[in-house]
């Protein structure tokens, strides 16, 4: 049988002046050769590892507190504490400490707080005494008046008691907070010199504040501990003045006193099975009257709040005990009641459970779904309370939405070899709960008249706030529940309903609807894109954009950013849909280039579709492009334009510069005309390539791309393949956005001719990303050379 007398918890005080639980074990004392002295040893009860090895120093001040606690400091800012399960074990170790230090075990502290010289000085101090009236019955009134008149003395008494608190000594607190002294201490603190009238703290504690035993507490020690903790907490929060910056750490022992009291109270209640059984039985009993149930719920709420002071492993045991007692079924019963205050307290208790262990809550609701209807499921009760919140600011609904978000967050769901909590819970949620969550959205966006389509029925502030909360949660689901939410949105036509809200008079709701659609588009999922195009769901967005007019506000920026994303990410299907269906409405928007850029993207796509050979040509040439820094390219081009022809060196190619700015018509001119002009230059190209001595200056942006590792010869004649307009790299085979030039430089390699093309600055971003990937994937890449600038 384990010796429970020696069972202890080891605590250390951290930098925040909070006690950290270092583990539970069994303490012993004995001589340790390495430390050269008698030491305290604590070995963990789980694995026997050493939790504590501390030499009992003769000059260290050890304090015995509350009969089961020994506290001491080993070094500056390093405090230790042993909390014993039984008083007998604490007394045994205390005797050993006192024996080593040569002290009487009856003391509560082994070192004197005040030295002898100070005591002698206090004895020598003399002051004129106060003359009191004779202690007779007929003079009692005079005695009382004397006390009342001596306000200055009461103010001094306040300062003395406050100074004792700042001494930060547990031994003093043990005496001051005892049942006999605590009310006198509070009385002394009523006479603050800074106040014109004394505070009536004792009157409040004795007459106003009432201790209610919702369930009778049979243990007198527990009852006394609860009384003491409440009063000390009152002193800390209400009686003592707010500590200054210099005094904050001077009350650390007071914080520790309250902390250990709360730990003890929670532990004693947790171990009392009869108490907890009676508590939950009365909570769920229909015969319990409303006032009694309100008190029971408030007690349970305070009980859970106390548990926040526990260390993680102790909190784990605490919530497991509550779970075994049936706290979740009890909360389900309480949340179904009509009393708003009771439901509010139950919601707070539920939040403690969700924040601590959401998996426990998810497991419970999935199990109860096998036995109960959807209407009475715990999670659906939470959703209904969120929807039916009567607070004009929806404070409770915001809290409940946060709890639901935690429950449906895949990041805190567990995954094991046999089952995945994410798959099981999300399947359950979308089958049993999602229709309850989306009910207000569907109810307020109905199609009353087919001619008018779907309309937003109630546009009042509270309804709009509620729908904004629901949209926030649905947007979270879009980001994290790809499969389940996609099926739900498409099958229930949710996005169409949501976009009706863009016409709301409340800007925050319209922006929530836009944010919902923006998250969907951001996934770049073609299932979503086809759904949007099939139902023409950009129409309400563009309508909201046009109705917003020229106002520069969040609505304007959010809509433009959505279309800009489609353009930058080159979402081809949506680009074509927008231009083909809504271009006339958007073509006059000139203060941003977003919509003209979309049109340009669309025309480039059409160009590729009409000329598949050109598209394949681009893909081949893309593999040989090298991405250059735009600033470097501009600098080199500036140097080229500033150079005279007389300064050109021999052996360099002459390539005329191209115009920097081209009109939209030039960029989109027909490919046939382009190829005809290129053909006209074939003869000039042959002459340039046939020369053995090529004079001119090489364009700074000239780039050589090789398909092999052999050297390039600029003087070798072109092969017949290089003159074929349809072959890659030939003068008649332009790349995207290529411009015609009076002369073209060709490069030959051992394996054949590779063409050189410089793409315009407005090339697709996606193409540039692909070219980088292609360059990086080369097994034996050659260093990029300069590429020629083709000009018209």
TrEMBL record:
Residues 147-604 form the Serine/threonine-protein phosphatase 4 regulatory subunit 3-like central domain. Pfam families: EVH1_PP4R3 (PF22972), PP4R3 (PF04802). SUPFAM superfamilies: ARM repeat, PH domain-like. Residues 5-101 form the PP4R3 EVH1-like domain. Residues 701-727 have a biased composition (Low complexity). Gene3D superfamilies: Pleckstrin-homology domain (PH domain)/Phosphotyrosine-binding domain (PTB). One of its GO terms (biological process) is DNA damage response. Residues 642-652, 759-777 have a biased composition (Acidic residues). Regulatory subunit of serine/threonine-protein phosphatase 4. It comes from Dissostichus eleginoides. It comes from the Eukaryota. Residues 674-689 have a biased composition (Basic and acidic residues). GO terms for cellular component: nucleoplasm; protein phosphatase 4 complex. This is Serine/threonine-protein phosphatase 4 regulatory subunit 3. Belongs to the SMEK family. Residues 642-792 are annotated as: Disordered. InterPro entries: ARM-type_fold, EVH1_PP4R3, P4R3-like_central_dom, PH-like_dom_sf, PP4R3-like.
